[in-house]
Design brief:
By secondary structure, the chain is mainly α. It contains four helices and no strands. It is flat and about 50 Å long. About 5% of the residues have low confidence.
C-alpha cells in the first residue's frame, strides 16, 4: 500500500495540509463563482418580482393576493441571499445592489415594456462591473 500523498489525506478526518489550500490572493474558485452568480439571479427574480407584485397589487389595484405573493417573494429573496458562498453580509448586499440595478431594467423591459436608454444600459454595466470587483477579486485568506 502506497503512503498517502500531500494532496490526499490518509483519513477522511484529516484536514488538508497548508500546501493543499489556495495561496492568499488567488482567484475565487470557478464553482463558487457559478454558484454565486446563480444565487444572484435567483435573488433578483425573488426581490424584483416580489416588489413588482406589490406594485401591481397597490398601484394597479390588483388586490391583496398580488400583494401577499409579493411579500412572500420578498421573504424568499432574504433567504436566498444567505446561501451565497461568501460569509460577509455587507459584501453580499453591496454586490447584490448592482445585480438589482441591472435586473430591474431587464424586468421593466420584459414585464412593462420599458425601453432603457444608453445611460440606463451604461449605468447598469458599471454596476455589474462593481459586482465583479466586490465579489470576485482575489483577497488574502
Amino acid at each position: 500500500v502506497a503512503p498517502p500523498t500531500s494532496t490526499q489525506p490518509s483519513t477522511a478526518s484529516e484536514a488538508p495540509s497548508p500546501a493543499d489550500r489556495p495561496a492568499p490572493g488567488t482567484l475565487v474558485a470557478v464553482n463558487d463563482v457559478v454558484r454565486s452568480l446563480a444565487l444572484f439571479v435567483l435573488a433578483a427574480l425573488a426581490e424584483i418580482g416580489g416588489a413588482w407584485l406589490v406594485w401591481q397589487g397597490v398601484r394597479e389595484h390588483r388586490g391583496w393576493i398580488w400583494i401577499g405573493a409579493g411579500v412572500i417573494a420578498l421573504g424568499l429573496y432574504g433567504f436566498v441571499a444567505t446561501l451565497q458562498p461568501d460569509a460577509h453580509f455587507g459584501r453580499i448586499l453591496a454586490a447584490y445592489g448592482g445585480v438589482f440595478v441591472a435586473g430591474s431594467l431587464l424586468w421593466g423591459t420584459a414585464m412593462d415594456g420599458f425601453r432603457p436608454d444608453r445611460y440606463d444600459v451604461t449605468g447598469s454595466l458599471i454596476c455589474l462591473l462593481g459586482v465583479a470587483v466586490i465579489m470576485y477579486s482575489p483577497r488574502a485568506a
